[in-house]
Amino acid sequence: MTKLLTRRTILGGAALGAGGLLSGCDALNRSPAFQNLLATAETGNFHVQRALGDRMELASEYTIADLSPTFRANGTRNPDTQNYNASAANGFSDWQLRLFGLVNKPQSFSFAALQSMPQRTQITRHDCVEGWSAIGQWTGVPLKLLLDLAQLRDTANFLIFHCADSLGGRPYYESTDLLDAFHPQTIIAHRLNGELLPIENGAPLRLRVERQLGYKHAKYLTGIEAVASLDGIGEGKGGYWEDVANYEWYAGI
Ligand SMILES: Nc1nc2c(c(=O)[nH]1)N[C@H]1C(S)=C(S)[C@@H](COP(=O)(O)O)O[C@H]1N2
Ligand SMILES: [Mo]
Fold first, then answer.
1. How far is the CA of 189 from the centre of ligand 1 (A)?
2. pLDDT single digits (tens) 146-204
3. Homologous superfamily of 64-245 in CATH?
4. Terminus of the chain with fewer CB atoms < 10 Å: N or C?
């Protein structure tokens, strides 16, 4: 009973911190990150509330005056596969973003469908571990809206973001836990500074997960897969750079 009350108290705190976005999210209760916070909560101290609040806090947002003159590109600048090039030639009108895995209702969203859904626009700073930053304005669909349509199963703990490009023969991919997935600034972006995404910045769709470093922001999204564990995907470390160069899986900023 104590546990239940604690759980509710914390969820209440999270809902407040995230503008009510998280209230009643069962899938979140199953997230390992969330479970860790709950485990700490058993000791009943106030730092827990703060820790969870920190994870759901918004990244700083900027103004039009702060925009970088050019938003530089990094990593893949063009997937340059036959499929990608054909789709690009059609303005990505045939592009589909699949949402599958541990969901009750698998979805496939066309580029047009995503553009007609409710949008969020945010001006944020992108920080790359290679030592540069850029401020850009991103527009896209809150990932939460897509997840609500697909209905995550209780067994889902992570989302895998599949991309259209490969580096050195390995597909690029990334992953997040459910706290970042439901974060209000986590969007599937299709616009940068008011224009459709340039190819070098991830056209037609890329992830913005604003509390994380640059490499987590997967470009050229083709699919989002809900999984119980990161095992068996790539080398199992949760992302391309995590696998090949031991980058941190949790790259919080
Ligand atoms: N699919 C894909 N996503 C990717 C990368 C990539 O090479 N391929 N590079 C990552 C890195 S290291 C950074 S810093 C950002 C760069 O985004 P930008 O090209 O829009 O600056 O994308 C990230 N997402
Ligand atoms: Mo990066």
1. 13
2. 999 999 999 999 999 999 999 999 999 999 999 999 999 999 999 999 999 999 999 99
3. Oxidoreductase, molybdopterin-binding domain (3.90.420.10)
4. N
Our mutation pick for probing the ligand 1 site, out of 219, 220, 253, counting the most ligand atoms within 8 A of Cβ, is: 219
Query: What own/partner pairs with CB < 8 Å and gap ≥ 24 does 102-107 have?
Result: 102/152, 102/153, 102/155, 102/156, 102/226, 102/227, 102/228, 103/150, 103/151, 103/152, 103/153, 103/156, 103/226, 104/150, 104/151, 104/152, 104/153, 105/149, 105/150, 105/151, 106/150, 107/146, 107/149, 107/150
Say if ligand 1 is within 6 A of residue 216 CB: no
d(CA 184, CA 124): 13
